[in-house]
Fold each of these.
Amino acid sequence: MTVRGPTGGRPTIVSIAERAGVSIASVSRVLNGLGARRDTVEKVERAAAELGYVPNAVARSLKGGRTRQLTFAMPDIGNPVYVAMVRAIQTAAKAAGYRLLLHSTDAVVADELGVLRSLGDRTSDGLVICPIRITDAHLDALRTAAAPVVVIGTLPHGAGVDSVRADSVTGAALAVRHLYETGRRRIAFVNGPADTVPGRSRAEGYRAALAECGLGYDQRLVVHTEFGIESGAGATARLLAARPDAVFCANDQLALGAARALHAAGLAIPGDVAVAGMDDSALAQAGWPPLTSVDLGSTERGRRAAELLLERLRAPGGGPTTPRTTTVAPRLVVRASTAPRIPTGPAHERNP
Amino acid sequence: MTVRGPTGGRPTIVSIAERAGVSIASVSRVLNGLGARRDTVEKVERAAAELGYVPNAVARSLKGGRTRQLTFAMPDIGNPVYVAMVRAIQTAAKAAGYRLLLHSTDAVVADELGVLRSLGDRTSDGLVICPIRITDAHLDALRTAAAPVVVIGTLPHGAGVDSVRADSVTGAALAVRHLYETGRRRIAFVNGPADTVPGRSRAEGYRAALAECGLGYDQRLVVHTEFGIESGAGATARLLAARPDAVFCANDQLALGAARALHAAGLAIPGDVAVAGMDDSALAQAGWPPLTSVDLGSTERGRRAAELLLERLRAPGGGPTTPRTTTVAPRLVVRASTAPRIPTGPAHERNP
DNA sequence: GTGAAAGCGCTAACAT
DNA sequence: ATGTTAGCGCTTTCAC
């Protein structure tokens, strides 16, 4: 049972000092492992143990100016990509002795700006933020932030903030080229919303890879939609009229939807149509057949963002004055959904 | 650009007081919306705005004894079940003006106890914890916790703590009965580790439903394994020798593994074998065919846990002295993976 | 209505 | 080696 101190609540260094018959300064020193005489140490430690003393982190923060808390703000924890980041950041934070505050912004700009501004309340020592769009207001808030910030995402040049970005242009190209190399020639593209940075990048990678492979850009093979399995299924169903032999999707949820639509249409994967997604989330391995997917390094981005932030927090003057930007390279993870169809021959020869 | 105050850092009420030519007490009153003369209010508000003042939450917490932070401790954010809980808790916390601290315990008992004990550091006003096993040490730590705690999980009677539990006995029975009613007679069970509370409950529900349906318990149809797609696939592959016509799995990951093993063995789902999982996570809809799954109400459990906690924090004296326990009812979500096989006839008549 | 001052629990400079 | 004391930034009596 926890013994109560004088504050009507928990024991403080004062309770310990009284009980041990020493000053509060000695208590503080002993508790912080600074020098003290052997018997003083013993008295204090015994008293602390008996009282079930736990140092008040708030008081310590007020004094020290640091909370040992980090904040991660992302659009939606429901998305596996952000889960991967949370996990990586949490791990890094824990290892460095920091707690992690989570903030869901629902991709609302005002909310993101609020998080940035609230750094002024000194609740956390630093922030990793993952905005989906970057407005001028963001850049402004980033510049005047009251604590170190690392952005996961692509910032305009000269933004003056540490950032970690994925290379989705290359990532998308990787997938398209792979589909080409495994014999696909009519490669459809189910993209997410067009007005986001990642949306544009993926479109760019798709076009570039097509050109490189000598394939023409066919408007009828491209569609934009919201993220989500349903959306992916709907979009793919519409695409079928254009007779694709592969469907490349801007994320795994869309790809799962595509797979569903193809199954429903009686088309075999990868026999008739290959499917590839992006993010390489847990979902990719869940599908049947398991999905080929481009790993954009969510975990790695989270890890690096945390590293950058912690590094700056460790550095005495706040670290380097020039902001650093790192790019995480994409990685194609090939699974059964894009196996070459050559061995089995054309679809009409084996389908009932 | 943020103007700097005297602390070498951010502006404080002192900076504002000086600039506005009033006392710090007046500043505090104005900022907290207490009574003040019109021109005082104006002077203070102008000064605050000009300085870009943001109140220091740490100082406020030290004074007020509340941090407006909640902690959620769960085994692993990688599991969709906990993601659902985080999401629900985060939403409730945000709505009530609380921030959310996330803590991954990796299901390590020492870590869970550490979280409980660390409530003494006053970093958060309350805790929702989701332990996978409950030891005596847990009960002890729960009883002496320095702040309100709500447990998501099943506690022994008289534990003296608020809790929210799932009813996995009924949930498992729901699935088994459904399989029976759709014509299955050899219902296999891929369970998680045997030494956890949920593991035992699910086994109990499985046995009870079998008995109720008049089916015998066949040892060869039951297997325990770790959670995970791979484990599920391996376990199911081993089960095949016992010729099941349905595989019920203790969670969706296992069920996806089962589906993979069945596909690999050339068995049709649900034509030859039906598959059902538990949790009704995002994964259930990702599979092909989409999986029937028992929703154990992760979101609802998170929501209710947060409610219980917030209620206690709102109550003046810490709320009701008698702990409350609520149970969230399971719900069977039927999808294609358990469609009755009657219409299509026995497997040997249509399989090549 | 407003200001002076106490104090939340802690650390650290200074004095002994 | 140990005690005294001054704050960290804020809220809140208590006088005026």
Amino acid sequence: MEKFRKSERLCSRKSIGRLFSGGNILFHYPFKMIWLESAGENPFPARIVIGVSGKKIKRAVNRNRIKRLIRESYRASKGRLYESLTLRNRHIDIALLYVADNVYDYDLIDMKLKELFNKFIQNDEPGKEIL
RNA sequence: UCAGCAGGCCGUUCCAUCGCUUCCCGCUUUAUACGGGGGGGAGGAAAGUCCGGGCAGCACAGGGCAUCACGCUUCCUAACAGGAAGAUACCUGUGAGGGUAUGGAGAGCGGAGAAGAAAAUAACCGCCCCGGCAAUCCGGGGUAAGGGUGAGAAGGUGAGGUAAGAGCUCACCGGUCCGUUUGGCGACAAACGGAGCCGUCCGCCCCGUGAGCUGUAAGGCCAUGUAUAUUUCGGGUUUUCUGAUAAUUCAGAAAGGCAGGGUUGCCCGCCCUGGUAUUCUGCUCUGCAGGAUAACCGGAAGGGGUAGGUCGCAAGAGGCAAUUGGCAACAAUUGUCCCAGAUAAAUGAUGGAAAUCCCUUUUGGGAUACAGAACCCGGCUUACAGGCCUGCUGAUUUU
RNA sequence: UGUCCUGUGGUGUAAUUGGCAACACGUCUGACUCUGGAUCAGAAGAGUCCAGGUUCGACCCCUGGCAGGACAA
């Protein structure tokens, strides 16, 4: 259950380009989430790409650390998101960008990410039929 | 004991649970998909990209000029602007030490703002001589000892000498050059003898050594797709020789011209690639003239698609240990080990111990630097909590 | 990841074989005007991104940092 496989990550250059050019944006500090409905050929309901700006976080050490923290937190808390998506048989691509310009610790990032996903699920449910 | 100098080294460790990446096994399985088991998984600077190589592609007969880099000596090294051991001069620290410079030219040419008389054929003030009857003064000449300017002013001190002075002469001192001897592989050092030869800095200049260009997004293969689409304009189409043949034909070779490219920049020269074909008309028909159209080359106009996989790519100027040679950098021999390989990019999270340091105070609380591989090595430079080892210096105390 | 370039008042630019850091706009003060603009007169504002070195002397030359930017799928 708490695995994080390659097919759960978004690796295609084309898909990422499509995502950034026409994705829906959901903002919850310190994250910016861009998501888009996808074809749905892979076995997992979501594919994710994590980004940290080199403009905001100068040192590569800190950038790597933030990415690892986000990935770890995502791995732990993606269950609820998957549940909500599989219930309605949807597949999405997600880009998760870190927009703060200082480093936070694991507890805060974990909490904020959970809040973000709750927000996403709540926003998604009533608008389901329209989409 | 305190303060410091030089050189070298380390730069957190262990356990549990859950993950990521890569390789192996092939237990399960149609299947190396998913499970399962096992091994490996950031640094001394991985950084800056400042030098030098390896490797790859392209290019390459050669010559001249220019450009750039380096520049005391000997050695080390694959190589270097790196390193080791030394030489000379200057600066700096009480000291252990530290820092900087050093190819050649006694040549020649150019420059040195402002200031100053003058920045190198030196006369502003001063000093001395002569002339203007005399005189504060004016004119001519001599003089580099004194003054002031400047970063720098024609070696320094003393004596002789002189109208006044001056290496003009002499003694001593400093430097330079020449010669000889000794020591050293050498840079150079020391000693002796000789020459009145004597301002500083920079550039041009001369000599030696080195430098082809581009970088793994190099480059190779596979897959997909395809535009060498198409339109238009311009260039372009020779000669000689040899053999065969009925031949104006065919085959081969050479040269020239044309187009493009290369040779780091320029010139000469050279090299590479392409094509050098077909046909019509006229005439004087082994030939000449004119035209047309291809191949090919160049300019302009002119849509889209793919952007994946794999090799390169992890056994190397490799690490570790011992011995030997060397003052050392380093080298040789033997033994032993296999030690990251991602690609929207792995090396992480949580909890608990330990170690070191700090604050408080006996309950504890906090901190652990600088920083993240991207083709690979050798250096340099920069950042860095804390700690260890070796040698040495200064101060104080005790014996 | 690789290859390059730039850094001067608040802003945009000069400074040429190394020799007093200049100009325009802007800012401030005064004059003119009923007031503002325009105009005129005057003033302030930098020590050249930072740290060393060469030199008598450095924006300029050399070395090392820092910051910003460009190009190469």
